[in-house]
Write a structure and sequence with these properties.
Bound molecules: iron/sulfur cluster
Number of domains: 2
Structural class: alpha/beta
Largest sheet: 5 strands, parallel
Radius of gyration: 22 Å
């Protein structure tokens, strides 16, 4: 597995940890005399504890990097992997902001690392439902039908947007599918469906927050394509969606395209939360 786009996240993580080490050493140097006033051994004990915590995170980063690059799981559990990435992510955001690195580039790299870790943890997947979670911006802006929440059956399959193909692939694989207008609805649907794993399509920002919010649930993230600019008439590479389904099918022991059922929608119970969704959309637009 090539290092590719994953390199940025791993490199900034290492740089961020180096900065943290310098900061921690400086802070310890400044507060050590004060700590010594309480007890002669306190500066040493604090130094050892901080050094140990730092070593664990640095070791975690090393193992995450090995997993992401080799495609082999080297950490004991996905929960530990998730915890390490969760600690590293804010550090990476801070370091990249200081260094002036493009936020979307960092998020794309993070999504690649996450996907590689999900692939590496294929043997830890629990059997269960695979949820297809889509953003509302995939729907043609000219479409008069409401398909968000649990209303995907309202799609007439006219082919004016990629929803038709996604619905078809969901039907052939017996997967629940939901089109969410924001993170609040997406979280509610996840709570309702309780999936074993998720294939999520979204932009860099929504995928990143969706992946980190859902930890330790495995989420394979697929970036949408935005030929008309952000948030309107977007599309997705169906080849990538099929590859993601094939990955989970192989890991969970079923054959893709052989589980034909009626289209299953998810989120019907969550479809009525318009007030909070409107607030969330306003917040998203403001970002
Ligand atoms: S494929 Fe479905 S969602 Fe897309 S424009 Fe046609 S009816 Fe609307």
């Amino acid at each position: 597995m090539a290092l590719g786009e994953k390199k940025l996240f791993i490199t900034i993580s290492a740089g961020g940890l180096a900065l943290l080490a310098i900061f921690m050493t400086g802070a310890w140097y400044l507060i050590a005399p004060r700590l010594g006033e309480f007890h002669v051994d306190l500066p040493g004990a604090v130094g050892v504890a901080a050094g140990l915590a730092f070593f664990v995170v640095a070791l975690g980063l090393g193992l995450v990097a090995v997993s992401a690059v080799t495609g082999q799981r080297v950490l004991f559990s996905q929960r530990i992997t998730s915890t390490v990435v969760r600690i590293l992510f804010p550090l990476v955001r801070l370091a990249s902001a200081i260094l002036g690195i493009d936020k979307d580039q960092v998020k794309r790299s993070f999504i690649e690392v996450n996907n590689a870790l999900v692939a590496a943890g294929r043997d830890t997947l629990r059997p269960g439902t695979l949820l297809l979670l889509l953003p509302h911006c995939l729907q043609a802006t000219t479409c008069p039908h409401k398909i968000t929440g649990g209303l995907i059956e309202n799609c007439h399959g006219c082919g004016n947007c990629v929803i038709e193909s996604l619905l078809d692939v969901a039907r052939r694989n017996g997967l629940p599918l939901t089109v969410a207008t924001g993170g609040t609805l997406a979280r509610r649907v996840i709570g309702e469906v309780d999936p074993a794993a998720i294939i999520a399509v979204a932009c860099e920002t929504d995928l990143t927050s969706g992946i980190t919010d859902s930890y330790p649930l495995p989420v394979l993230g697929i970036l949408n394509e935005r030929p008309h600019g952000p948030c309107r008439d977007t599309t997705v590479d169906m080849g990538r969606v099929r590859d993601a389904i094939a990955f989970f099918a192989e890991a969970l022991g079923w054959k893709p395209d052989e589980r034909e059922q009626h289209p299953r929608s998810a989120g019907a119970d969550a479809a009525g939360s318009n007030e909070s969704e409107e607030k969330e959309k306003a917040w998203t637009r403001a970002r």
